[in-house]
């Protein structure tokens, strides 16, 4: 269960090598979180992440999880919940893709959509059902401001995040009153391995800043968190621009 300050004692990370997820895990372990499950494809990176969190004092276990293998999600996540209640599920997996390349290779675009949306729908529903069965818990979904309005530069990724965002909001409405809390996190450009080599966008942020916003959101039981907060106003303005004007912007 969460402590008096809203900090989860147990955490399941879907996408166990995500820089944002690991920054969040480190922050929560430094507070009160003691049990961490890292779900992801077996790799030295996953093992290294587990060892890092163990070094901070957490009990850490890993579980094999692949966003694209949706038929395995119930068994993989069921194994985790069978070991005890989970206070927080952090859905953090996703791929950026390569817009120019993926436009020429539709199967690559499909992979982006299947990972970011289809895989998340599957894992989100399995997790939500388990949280509802135990009667408490939070599901935090890492969305993106890219989902607020499709841009020429990344509409494949952006459309997948738009679908994920809408799904997570609807899931939150469906679970309202059940004891399960859903929080959608919308970061802007995050300086990370995923964005290495890309031109940095205005109001860029870091995995650590997103982790801080997630902790604050959990304490407040927020439903939507923007990182940084100023993006809420910026994206509201961009979302309502006439399409002819929006097309002329260098975005």
Automatic annotation (TrEMBL):
Q: Which Gene3D superfamilies match?
A: NAD(P)-binding Rossmann-like Domain
UniProt keyword Coiled coil, yes or no: no
Name the Pfam families for this protein. Answer: adh_short
What InterPro entries does this protein's entry cite?
NAD(P)-bd_dom_sf, Sc_DH/Rdtase_CS, SDR_fam
Q: Which UniProt keywords apply?
A: Oxidoreductase
PANTHER family registered for this protein in UniProt: 5-KETO-D-GLUCONATE 5-REDUCTASE (PTHR43669), DECAPRENYLPHOSPHORYL-2-KETO-BETA-D-ERYTHRO-PENTOSE REDUCTASE (PTHR43669:SF6)
Q: State the family it belongs to.
A: Belongs to the short-chain dehydrogenases/reductases (SDR) family.
Q: What is this protein called?
A: Decaprenylphospho-beta-D-erythro-pentofuranosid-2 -ulose 2-reductase
């Amino acid at each position: 269960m969460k402590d008096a300050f809203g900090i989860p004692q147990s955490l399941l990370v879907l996408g166990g090598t995500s820089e944002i997820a690991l920054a969040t895990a480190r922050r929560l372990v430094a507070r009160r979180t003691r049990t961490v499950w890292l779900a992801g494809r077996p790799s030295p990176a996953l093992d290294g992440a587990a060892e890092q969190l163990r070094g901070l004092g957490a009990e850490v276990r890993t579980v094999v999880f692949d966003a694209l293998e949706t038929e395995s999600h119930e068994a993989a996540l069921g194994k985790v919940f069978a070991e005890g209640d989970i206070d927080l599920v952090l859905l953090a997996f996703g791929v950026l893709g390569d817009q120019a390349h993926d436009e020429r290779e539709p199967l690559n675009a499909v992979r982006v959509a299947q990972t970011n949306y289809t895989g998340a729908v599957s894992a989100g529903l399995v997790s939500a059902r388990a949280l509802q069965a135990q009667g408490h818990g939070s599901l935090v979904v890492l969305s993106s401001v890219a989902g607020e309005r499709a841009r020429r530069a990344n509409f494949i990724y952006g459309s997948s995040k738009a679908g994920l965002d809408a799904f997570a909001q609807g899931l939150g409405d469906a679970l309202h009153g059940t004891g399960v809390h859903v929080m959608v996190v919308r970061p802007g450009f995050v300086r990370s391995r995923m964005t290495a080599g890309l031109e940095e966008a205005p109001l860029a942020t870091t995995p650590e800043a997103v982790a801080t916003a997630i902790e604050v959101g959990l304490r407040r039981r927020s439903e939507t968190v923007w990182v940084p907060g100023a993006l809420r106003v910026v994206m509201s303005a961009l979302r309502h621009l006439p399409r002819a004007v929006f097309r002329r912007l260098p975005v």
